[in-house]
Amino acid sequence: MPLHRLTTITIGVPDVDAAAAYYTEFGLTPLGDNAFATSDGGEQFRLTHSTQRRLVEIGVGVDDPDDLDRVQRQLDALSLDTERSDGSLTATEPIAGFRAVVSIAPRIEQKIVDPTPYNGPGRVDRPDSRAPGIERQGQVVPHKLGHVVIGSTDQAATQKFFTDGLGFKISDTVPSMAAFMRCSTDHHNVLVQQAPLNFLHHTSWQVDDIDEIGRGAMAMLEGNPERHVWGLGRHHIGSNFFWYLKDPAGNFSEYYSDIDCIVDDALWKPGVWEGARSLFNWGPPPPPSFLMPEDLAALMTGSHSSE
What we know:
single chain, eight-stranded mixed sheet, alpha/beta, 2,3-Dihydroxybiphenyl 1,2-Dioxygenase, domain 1
């Protein structure tokens, strides 16, 4: 596919300094000017001031000018205005109003992380040694931005912007509720869900394995238990392990590992999911605040501020 990854995301928050401190503690590397990097993806996250928390911009990478031409034709067919410059194309999503910037960008190159050895019935893959996960020291550092979840008051229209406009592919759906869409081999890079208002639900960041999810979350919760949202668990759609935390503005951030990868489109069978499996396979039940974040009423009335 001409698209190959998420490049960056920019979010608006009332208190930039508080959010910057949170995401630095989360494991992103500050670059200055409220920009942050992952270990493999380079600069992938930016903060800007806004009276309410919101998604400002999402970036998508392509290989060459021909890919930009293709995306522009698709957006033109939807009668959407675009701005073209050397190496990039910008369009505004018509429902939530965030910018989508499609740019020529290098494909992400990730160093191979050795599989974690596990002992099992009749199998000793880790003889005479402790589990690596309990020996690890230091901060958990995400490898890359994996996906973004967006609430839209018109899920179908926002989905169409990503699929028909930008060229994302659908991996799985929840009828009349959500679409899991990809611009890479990862199961999903954007999820759009029906919501009572337009908002950013969460960003998701790849780490090595389930131990890194646990280590990262426990470090974030030490002294700050109010940051906990949901986890530890495993999603059914996408299969990834997860733990969700909450930043000072109310956005959720997820550590994830072991997500499904779709290398050959012809071999993947998109599913339609309902009920509990649309949310998770195992783990604690999702709290009401995950399904309907506690600040949505304030966002709807415009009273969410830096107070």
